[in-house]
Amino acid sequence: MDRDAVSAAVIETRGLTKRFRGGQLAVDSLDLSVPAGSVFGFLGPNGSGKTTTIRMLMGLIAPTSGTAALLGHPVPRAARSVLPQVGALIEGPALYGFLSGRDNLIRYDSADPAADPRTRRARVAAALDRVGLTAAGGKKAKAYSLGMKQRLGLASALLQPRRLLVLDEPTNGLDPQGMREIRSLVRELAADGTTVFLSSHLLDEIEQVCTHAAVMSRGRLVVQGPVTELAAGARGRLVVTTPDTAQAARVLKEHGVADLTVARERVTGELPPGDVEPADLNAALVRADVRVRSFGVERASLEDAFVALTGEGFDVAG
Ligand SMILES: Nc1ncnc2c1ncn2[C@@H]1O[C@H](COP(=O)(O)OP(=O)(O)OP(=O)(O)O)[C@@H](O)[C@H]1O
After folding, report:
1. Which segments does the entry list as coiled coil (predicted)?
2. Among 17, 24, 91, 315, which is best to mutate for testing ligand 1, by the most ligand atoms less than 8 A from CB?
3. 203 — phi, psi (to 5°)?
4. Element (H or E) spanning 157, and its range?
5. In sequence order, what are the residues at sequence separation of 6 or more whose Cβ sits closer than 8 angstroms to the Cβ of residue 207?
6. Backbone phi, psi, residue 39, to 5°
7. pLDDT one-digit tens code per residue, 122-144
8. Listed residue (19, 29, 85) closest to 216, CA to CA
């Protein structure tokens, strides 16, 4: 295998598999490739194997078979040398409520044998500043909102310079404002050159912040690549607004439009495969005296791509 190709990926797995005792196949022969500099969304419904994969990557559990490499080094074998360059936020931050945010970070840093005590205060101050908690740094952590706690957890991952950040469901449980804060922080970190790998069960979240994504379903990788390409893989839906819905649906059906839905004055359907031009469909409607108020093709979302690829709906609950 081309060694350069391996080192260009920040996370690379080959046939990575985890079968739990009791037989549960949580991750099934996963080949993941996370390019340097990407914001990589690891997407899948609850139970699809995301956390299990992340735990293997971070050396917390051993794979049943297959290999994984972080920053070009095999894990778990080289975990000790590579993990200091990787910041991780898995399963929510462990915080002491009776300590201030600042003291939580000082305590966390003191427990890290690789951390230099002489630079501790300055690094803690910089990390608090990074996540926008300077003003609240002296407050007890138990008085923090969930979003602030999550930002403090991120600060703990940022006490050292990191080449890679691994975040497991970083916006889980947050209100919309908290979610926005974490997303903009992720964007800022990426702009500074850190590769960010984050798991999520929220499709629109991935579309908003990620450059690349991998979609998991039942332990298997369904697809991975740049988000724009993944969404483009699914064809958009045709949307026609007209008072003559029944007639419009009939004409569109005759021209190969499938999966038609009619709601009030809106007819939607799947564009036929091949080189049928939406403009030709519009012309056919007009020829049949359908009064077309608006005619367009809705951009395909990652959700459309997911449904097209797996034939499943995307479970966004929980
Ligand atoms: N320690 C374990 N022992 C047995 N089965 C497990 C264990 N951990 C996870 N599983 C199972 O493995 C599958 C994948 O779980 P995993 O937690 O990796 O999914 P996930 O995509 O991260 O979902 P979630 O978002 O709910 O954490 C699930 O069916 C889960 O029940």
Report:
1. none
2. 24
3. -60, -45
4. helix 146-157
5. 227, 231, 301, 302
6. -105, 110
7. 999 999 998 999 999 999 999 99
8. 29
Question: Residue 308, exposed/middle/buried by CB under 10 A (0-12, 13-18, 19+)?
Answer: middle
Reported confidence tier of residue 2, pLDDT bands at 50, 70, 90: very low
Q: Are 29 and 222 in contact (CB under 8 A)?
A: no
Predicted confidence (pLDDT) at residue 315 exceeds the cutoff of 80: no
pLDDT range class, residue 152, cuts 50, 70, 90: very high
Which pLDDT belongs to residue 164?
A: 96
| CA dist., res. 266 & res. 263, Å (int) | 5
Which atom of ligand 1 lies at the shortest distance from residue 201's CA? Answer: 25
Q: How many A from CA of 218 to the centre of ligand 1?
A: 10
Ligand 1: residue of 19, 46, 52 to mutate (most ligand atoms within 8 A of CB) is 52
Query: What type of residue sits at position 146?
Result: L
Ligand 1 centre from 42 Cα, in Å?
A: 14
- Token pair for 27: 């991750």
pLDDT tens profile 17-65 = 999 998 899 999 999 999 999 999 999 888 899 999 999 999 989 999 9
Q: Write out residues with Cβ below 6 Å of ligand 1.
A: 20, 22, 24, 26, 44, 46-52, 201
